[in-house]
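Quick one - first record:
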Amino acid sequence: MNRYNPLAPLALIGRYRELVLPLTGRRISARYKGSLLGMLWAVLNPLLMLGIYTFIFSVVFQSKWGLDRGDQLEFALFLFSGLILYSVFSGCLNEAPSLLLNNKLYIKQLVFPTEVLAWVSVLSGLFDLVIGFVILMVFHAVVLGTPSPTLLYFPLIVLPVVLITLGSIWFVASIGIYLRDLGHIVGLVTTALLFLSPIFYPASAVPDRFQAYYTLNPFAHILEMSKGALFYGQAPEPALLGACLAGSWAFSWLGYLWFMRAKKGFADVV
């Protein structure tokens, strides 16, 4: 497919599905290979994360979200919903600087489409998101009752995260193969963005004088739409969701174009 086709980033997964899906499955299995509990860690990790953050931010810091029922479990669900969504982006981006260096054998095979490694990374992150989402819905049913039908909007809200993550991986991976210090910079960026996004606090808590700058963060909108759909029964505003989709799509396409232009020199570097 022509790289200049705006659909090229999404078309990759269809064109190379017989390659991407096995690589994703192998990658997920490799995480837990040799461990005593195996794939059970895929469930235990988010459960432990939910418990730790509940204790720190609900008990130690006594954080408040202004909820009608301000108990600890209710706060934890809000916190957890933001973390599992943001973790798709942060987890993939943190490993992006070394993504190509860790797959040198593929790069040296000139016929291997290295651009699909971004999809392998994202699908692995989505695997964790699905497990976290199931856990979230179970606790939601127990603590808050049956979730609103607006949760069906959640996949649409996730799509901008997927596109932003893909674009970021293509940009960072193609630069990281030349600039080995990039991993340290990316780690600082993802940590800063974690606290600059409405995960540990609502977006309304940001002072008015900073709101104009705060809204430049795409996760400010995505995470607020996610909480609205999952907890308040609010459908995303079509204009806002459309803007997020259009902007993230453009970003992923630019990242793809950049990567395809830069990949000619990868074999010489590794």
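second record:
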Amino acid sequence: MAASDAIAVTRALDAVLRQDRGRLLAALISRLRNFQLAEDALQDATISALSHWGRAGLPSSPQGWLLKVALRKAIDRLRSGTRETRVGAEFARLLPEEAADPDPEMITDDRLRLIFTCCHPALDPKSRVALTLRSIAGLSTPQIASAFLDADTTMGQRLSRAKAKIAAARIPFAVPGPEDWSDRLQSVLAVVYLIYNAGYTAGPTAEGDLCAEAIFLARLLDRLRPEDPEIEGCLALLILTQSRAKARIGPDGMTVALTLQDRTLWNHAAIEEGHRLIDRAMARRNPGPYQIKAAIAACHTVDPIPDWPQIAALYTRLLDFEPTPIVHLNRAVALAETGALSDAMAAVAALQPVLADYAPFHAAQADLLSRAGQTAAAHAAYDRAIALAASAADAAFLIRQRDGPPN
């Protein structure tokens, strides 16, 4: 295969996996009832695609081809790794699937069932979120570890234990009934939010697919469970945040601060939809963390100068639900904007031990130190934030903040 052909095949395969990896993996897990086997089989099929597609060309149904070959690879793994007498039942169930020729339009979308399986109460909350990010969004272990501020090895061990526990406990692959819904809803919403956040912070080359995936899942949840205020709040939060996506990176490739963004680039239809959703959710008078986060996002879209006292008050209320270091940091930033600089600096300083490797912490600290006239300390904090920046655009923004505008 010529080098140019290999590149074309690799790009085509990457595009298919970016679009449909979660759907394919969910379809495989639905059939195999085994997370690790499904992941391994899809990986095997991906490797086969690189050589086969290079020789025979791109199939008419790349998704169907991958699903069919992955099922065959799963059977090969079962046959080679286990005595036939112990896997006869598996073969009997899988062989009809192997003989089929799946059409991508006919591949059942089992992603929602997979999310609820990952978010079963038998798993601890952190593992529920991490496993769904891995299975549905296809995030790598280092990406998930970064989202949790964990070490890669720690997260890898957590994911392995979660998969093993699902298999050992025979956790059902199903959307729960109403009686079990509340136990898993917050974990499911956390998954959706983190999927969106991973796409948003990754930069313009990667954010589209993940952000769209998260909004799709939030809309799916809203259709499945209408009139739930927290689902409405989560959907509103994502829509309001995404409405500003085109304005957050300037022509120079630099992140643009929210208050300096060109509002003509905002998606105002999306903003109106987000406001309608959060108004409807809050009218149900059953507040929760996603409704509060959406209300904060809504405050940033109303006037050029945000209502910082209201935003600070909302963060204070959010602490009742999520007393996390990140919420404390955001509340401190809002306090500084209200003029309470000393209180904000004290609050940020107290977060140093737990947020030492978190770029926004150092960026916030640098800004507060600069406002207080502590130039040398601010410069050092900016250096640390730049070193930890999640993207080149963020790093460029922080360098500009540290050095000031060019002469």
